[in-house]
Design brief:
This protein is an alpha/beta fold and about 210 residues long. The protein has one domain (about 35-210): D-amino Acid Aminotransferase, subunit A, domain 2 (D-amino Acid Aminotransferase, Chain A, domain 2), CATH 3.20.10. The protein contains 5 helices and 9 strands; from the N terminus they run βαββββαβαβββαα. Strands 1, 2, 3, 4, 5, 6, 7, 8 and 9 form a 9-stranded mixed sheet that branches. A hairpin with a 2-residue loop joins strand 4 (about 90-95) and strand 5 (about 100-105). It is globular and about 55 Å long. The model has no long low-confidence stretch (mean pLDDT about 95). Bound molecules: pyridoxal-5'-phosphate (PLP). Pyridoxal-5'-phosphate (PLP) binds next to helix 2.
Length: about 210
Amino acid sequence: MSTPKIGVKPDGKSNFLIAAMPFGVYLPSDNGIHACVSSWRRLEDNAIPSRAKICGAYVNSVLATMEAQANGFDEAIFLNESGHVAEGSACNLFLVRNGALVTPAASENILEGITRASVIELAHQELHMDVIERPVDRTELYIADEVFLTGTAVEIAPVTRVDHRLVGDGTVGPVARRMRAVYAAAVHGRNERYAKWLKPVYQHVLAGLRH
Ligand SMILES: Cc1ncc(COP(=O)(O)O)c(C=O)c1O
């Protein structure tokens, strides 16, 4: 919504703006990152819907990342008001448990990320793994074989320590490693099966994809 008037009563008009800029590496994670469970809780659906990328809602993420960084961590993991794991500050979260991928369900105050959906499809199609969407307890982060974060910005970011505890053996696990490879192949146009996900924006990129 946009309005020239100051206030909180939208006039029903909206404007649309897209700005494109180089992103760089948002969260260096080749060797895994160290995350903490935030003391801040994820926004509730009845306050500001988490499933939408609403600008004002990002103050929630800023508070969590400021706290995480002040305490020496790379990233924060939100619990929701029920005490279940929700997601990272601007990314979704997956665990590997008993050979399956587990991720907080859409009803857990998460943003239903496009990368999350892509990873679920890649898990089925390329890694031949089951994906279970369900509530996730905090302590599952500590006993999972692997934890990784997903998002347009973080891509696939393995988490090798949570709250100073090693995840698995404390190195990037085999599932995260394979997921990074198949994700990179898909988003860089090296796997025809996922060409439908891509929108070439430069002519020379388009030409390159054709040859
Ligand atoms: C709060 C939050 N969760 C998850 C994500 C991941 O979403 P996507 O995969 O669509 O980038 C984002 C991305 O900005 C986000 O802001």
